[in-house]
Amino acid sequence: MRFCGGAKSILLSSATIFSLILSFIHVSVSIPFIVLHGIGDQCSNKGMKQFTQELNDWSNSKGYCLSCREVGDGSWDSWFKPLQEQTEIVCNKVKQMKELQEGYNIVGLSQGNLIGRGVIELCEGGPPVRNFVSLGGPHAGTASVPLCGTGIFCIIADNLIKSEIYSDYIQAHLAPSGYLKMPNDIEGYLSKCRFLPKLNNEHADEKNATYKERFTSLQNLVLIMFEHDTVLIPKETSWFGYYPDGAFNPILPPQQTKLYKEDWIGLKELTEAGRVKYIKVAGNHLGISKDDMKKYVVPYLEDETSKKQTNFDEQNIEDPQAVGSSVEVIFDESSSSYKWPSPVKSFFGELLGLKKDH
C-alpha cells in the first residue's frame, strides 16, 4: 500500500513538475492573415498565388487571399462594383471565416488597401484586425485614374472620367471613382464622392468617432510607398500625404495634412504612439523586392508581432531610404493596377457611343 501510495505520489509530483515546465515554455499561436489584391487582379493569377504563398512560407502563418472571384463576380467587380459594396462583401466573408475569429492581419495591395480600411472602420461585428500592412495604397486619394495606356481612346476616356467623375452614374459604376480626389474640385469631391470622404472622416459635420476608435485599435500600421510609383498621383498618398485643397502643388507630407493635424481617423494618435511605420522602397507600383517583403511585411505576420522590436529604422518623407536589390515580385500583366483590361475599354466604348472599328 505504501508502495502504491508512494508511486501515486511520485506520478502526481511528476505531472505537477511537467505542468510547471510547460508553463514556462512559449506556445506559439499563429495569427492568420488575409491578402486583398489590387484592381483587376484575382487570387487565381500567378503573381497573387506566388505572393500569398511566399508570405505563408516566410511567416509560418496561414494566409488567405480574398479575391472578387471568391467574394463576388471575378475581377470585373473590382472595377465596376462600388467600393462600399466590395467592403460589405469582404466584411461578411471575414465574419464567416472561423479561422479569423480570434483576430487576424491584413496585407493590402493598391486599391485593396481601401477595402481593408473599410473592413477595419466600417465592418460591424467583425473579428479584430491586429496589424495592417499597406503596399501602395491610395489612402488620401489619387488625382488620376489607373493607367489606360496610349491612343485617342484612352485620352477621351481619361478626360471623360475626370470631367464626370463625381456624377451619379460614374460613382455607381466605376470603383476608382470612389477615391479620385481632384484638388481643383474639392466641393464636388466632398459632396458627390461616395467612399473615401466617409472612410477618411472628411465631412465637417459628420465626423464618426467609431471609425477613429476602430482604426486606432490597430497594433501596427505599416505604410509602404514605392519610390518610382507612376500609378498613384501623388505617390505620397501611400503615406496619407496629398495636395492641398485647390492646388496641385506642393505635395504635403502626411503630418501637414488636415486629416493628420485634426486627427480625423486617428493617424496622428497611432503615429505618436509609435505604431505607424512609414516605409519607402525602390520600384514602381507594387514592384516590391523579396528582400523588402521579408524586411517590412513578414515581421508583422509572424507570431507575437506586437511584442517584437523591429530591426529597421522608420523612414520619413524628407530622407527616405530605398532598400532591396533582389528580384521583384511580378504580378500578372493582366492586372489593371498597370493597365486597363479589354472589358474596361469596352465599358467606356459603350459609354462614349464608340464602335470597335472607331
Describe this structure in words.
- It is a single chain.
- The protein has 358 residues and is of the alpha/beta class.
- It contains 15 helices and 6 strands.
- It has helices at residues 2-24, 46-59, 68-71, 75-80, 83-96, 112-122, 152-164, 168-173, 186-192, 196-199, 209-215, 258-261, 267-272, 290-297, 342-352; strands at 33-36, 63-66, 104-109, 129-135, 220-226, 276-281.
- It has a 6-stranded parallel beta sheet, sandwiched between helices.
- The radius of gyration is 23 Å and the shape is globular.
- The protein starts with a helix and ends in a 6-residue tail after the last helix.
- Mean pLDDT is 81; it is low at 1-12, 20-28, 305-311, 316-327, 332-338 and 354-358.
Low-confidence stretches: 1-12, 20-28, 305-311, 316-327, 332-338, 354-358
Q: Terminal Cα separation, in Å?
A: 101 Å
Q: Helix coverage percent of residues?
A: 25-40%
**Total count of helical runs of at least 4 residues:** 15
Number of β-strand runs: 6
SSE pattern: HEHEHHHEHEHHHHHEHHEHH
- How does the helix and strand content classify structurally? alpha/beta
Strands of the largest sheet, in order across it? 2-1-3-4-5-6
Assess the beta-strand content as a share of residues.
5-15%
